Amino acid sequence: MITLKGEHIYLRALEPEDLEFIHTIENDESIWELSNTLVPYSKFLIRQYLEQSQKDIFEVKQLRLVISSYENEALGMIDLFDFDFKNARAGVGILVRDHEKRQMGYGREALQLLINYSFNHLDLHQLYCNVSEGNQASIKLFEGQGFVKIGLKKDWNYVNGAFKNEYIYQLLNN
């Protein structure tokens, strides 16, 4: 699918071979704050998830794609979640796994591809994302792609003994 191919990366569906990659990400406590995860995931549960991942976005209300280099290295994941067909919107989540691969343009390119796919193939009217107030890299990423801060959720997430604010961003398909 040419729509999900960029200059340096492409987005692909999950494969059974992604078990270790996803297991590593889902069990990385340093990023649990991003997904509101509280407990580790077993390989058994992730294997079951992978078996179900080929279901249609209209059925499961989400789409998770792997951000892959053209050397077939899995760099991260990007998601559409809370897919709402009636209101033509979905949430976006993105993660480049390795710190040394971040801020190299992979996330930006993946987000551009997903925006294009969402607006031109899924006919969505809007995308939104939630970003912790102190997450400057994500704020820069989403604002750089035209997302607009539309609100602040005060004391929204409890992290490491303190409440953190969270912004909500929105991108309309005009």
Task: Walk me through the structure.
With 174 residues, the protein is α+β, with helices and mostly antiparallel strands. It has one domain: Aminopeptidase, CATH 3.40.630.30. The chain has 6 helices and 7 strands; from the N terminus they run E-H-H-H-H-E-E-E-H-E-H-E-E. The chain has a 7-stranded mixed sheet. It starts with 8 loop residues before the first strand and ends with a strand.
Q: Which bin fits the share of residues in helices?
A: 25-40%
Which strands sit side by side, in order, in the main sheet? 1-2-3-4-5-7-6
Return the CATH architecture: 3-Layer(aba) Sandwich
Number of strands: 7
CATH homologous superfamily title: Gcn5-related N-acetyltransferase (GNAT)
Give the number of helices: 6
Mean pLDDT: 89
Radius of gyration: 16 Å
Q: State the name of the first-level CATH class.
A: Alpha Beta
Low-pLDDT residue intervals, each spanning 5 or more residues: none
Largest sheet: 7 strands, mixed
What structural class do helix, strand and pairing data support? alpha+beta
In the CATH hierarchy, the third-tier topology is known as Aminopeptidase
Order of helices and strands: EHHHHEEEHEHEE
Overall geometric form: globular
Distance between the termini: 24 Å
Tell me the domain tally. Answer: 1
Notable traits:
single chain; 174 residues; alpha+beta; Aminopeptidase; 7-stranded mixed beta sheet; 35% strand
Concise description?
One of its GO terms (molecular function) is acyltransferase activity, transferring groups other than amino-acyl groups. With 174 residues, the chain is α+β, with helices and mostly antiparallel strands.
